[in-house]
Amino acid sequence: MSVQINAKMVGELRESTGAGLMDCKKALVESEGNFEAAVELLRKKGMATAAKKAGRDASDGLIDTYIHLGGKVGVMVEVSCESDFVAKTDDFKQFVKDIAMHIAAASPVCVSRDDIDPAIVAAERKVAEGQAEGKPAQAIEKIVEGKLNKFLSESCLLEQAFVKNPDQTVQELLTAMIAKMGENMQVKRFARFQVGA
Q1: Which of the residues 71, 144, 164, 180 has the least number of beta carbons within 10 Å of its own beta carbon?
Q2: Residue 188 and residue 112: Cα distance in Å, rounded?
Q3: Where is region (Involved in Mg(2+) ion dislocation from EF-Tu) located (predicted)?
Q4: 190, 101 in Cβ contact below 8 A?
Q5: 100 and 12 in a common domain
């Protein structure tokens, strides 16, 4: 039995994922109309597309700011892409604004694990080791690594759950945007300011 794929189904999938119409239709056909399976297919395709584009030079982009209500928290973020054309699209501008808003809300320390200060990691490791004292020797290393990974995933922007959709990490949002726009993109850097901090 073949499931009829209609325009409404394709539109809903496109709205949910941001993927192109033809990609949404192909994913629905391949998944025999199963919405969740189609979303998963598009995510896998997006990751593959993003991986192919990762080596390309992203020397254009935008710098944007976000000031949280009341002017108590402010963020400036730089997100790069490959072309001026993509940098000027409403989708890219909204993406950069969303990243700035996320940074204001979630207070990441750095963009990725590669950027975190080794002294911060060493200090966090000492805290975790102190908390694991008294546990069996074979468990200590696993406990420390687990606590360190949790700290890093909460501190690194790309690993944080996106504030507008906690089921998606910022990295997954970035990957979906790369697949949608067809260009390599990177969150280059950010600065977060908070009154009294």
Answers
A1: 71
A2: 10
A3: 83-86
A4: no
A5: no
Nearest CA-CA partner of 99 in 49, 46, 163: 163
Residue 70 located in a structural domain: yes
Greatest CA separation found in the chain? 64
The model's pLDDT over 105-140, given as tens digits with 9 standing for 90+, comes to 999 999 998 898 889 888 888 888 888 888 887 788
Residue 89 sits in the same domain as residue 144: no
pTM of the full predicted structure?
0.68
Encoded tokens for 119: 């002294």
Domain holding 20, by residue range, is 7-53
Distance CA 10, CA 33 (A): 10
pLDDT digits (tens, 9 = 90+) for 152-193: 889 999 999 999 999 899 999 998 888 888 888 999 999 999
